Amino acid sequence: MISKYIRAFSLVVAFCLLISSVPVYANETSQAQTKVSISDYKDLDGNIVGTKKKEITIGTPVYDDDGTKSVTITEIISYDLDEDFEFKEELQTKTRTTVFSTDTAGNNYINNELVTTSTTTAPPITTMDTGGHWKYTYYNCDSSVQCYLYTGSGVSFDLNTVHNAYKEKYLFKNPTNNGTISDFKLYATEANNAVDDYWDAGGWYLIAIAGIIGAIPFANAIAAIAAGGTAIYEAYQGYSAWKDLNDAMKNAYSLI
């Protein structure tokens, strides 16, 4: 993760040397925009087993009578995976539609829900990582008879705070539990890929805003999306990866 910050910082420095100033926001477009993002998809061992494609359509801004501005983003997520990848059949194409809004008081909303800051602090984790992501959704099935599983139900927008602390369980490897273990591994795989996507998107977001917003790449991403500025596409990719991680964690949490 540190190396990704270094790469992002280096790119920002180089970019800033070329220009004296970069506007954060541009004039609103009168037409919807569609862009495509393709990233590597990794298996449980970190091997690249295909690609994940996100086709993102950013709608035109809409204003309510009270001055609230909304932007609807539709995203089609699909996969191109190796034939022998164990979760190939489970990872199907899906569509996600999200409405980002900001009112005249500066409050930000996702699908009409006010975005607030989490205050729960996650306990330190010292277990060695053997699958998934050590902090968010993790499993250890090295034992010949059982698997250790743990996850939170979700994570804050800056990835610092895990919701509902952690739930953990040991499951014996048997016909009754094997399906649950396999599903948990799928969600752990999704979580780990989402974390990589989040920080990769962060580097591009920093470039798009020329390093103006500061250390946490997506601290103001919701406002940037609703404002429809130059960084909207990069900011949304950060949100999209965060949503992927939260969905994976929620699903894993429901299993145990």
Report what the structure shows.
The chain is an alpha+beta fold and 256 residues long. The protein is built from 4 helices and 13 strands. The strands form 3 sheets. Strands 1, 2, 3, 4, 5, 6 and 7 form a 7-stranded antiparallel beta sheet that branches. β1 and β2 form a beta hairpin. α1 (2-18) packs parallel to α2 (178-208) and α3 packs across α4 (232-255).
Topology of helices and strands:
Blueprint: H1 2-18, E1 33-42, E2 48-58, E3 62-63, E4 69-81, E5 94-102, E6 108-110, E7 113-114, E8 132-133, E9 137-140, E10 146-151, E11 154-155, E12 162-163, E13 167-172, H2 178-208, H3 221-227, H4 232-255
Antiparallel strand pairs: 1-2, 2-4, 3-4, 4-5, 5-6, 6-7, 8-9, 9-10, 10-13, 11-12
Radius of gyration: 19 Å
Mean pLDDT: 77
SSE pattern: HEEEEEEEEEEEEEHHH
Helix content bin: 25-40%
| End-to-end CA span | 28 Å
The best one-word shape is globular
Structural class by secondary-structure content: alpha+beta
Percentage beta strand: 25-35%
Biggest sheet record: 7 strands, antiparallel
Which spans have pLDDT < 50 for at least 5 consecutive residues? 1-30, 117-129, 211-216
Task: Output the number of helix runs.
Answer: 4
Total strands: 13
Outline:
The protein is of the alpha+beta class and 256 residues long. It contains four helices and 13 strands.
Q: Notable features of this structure?
A:
single chain, 256 residues, alpha+beta, four-stranded antiparallel β-sheet, 4 helices, 31% helix, globular
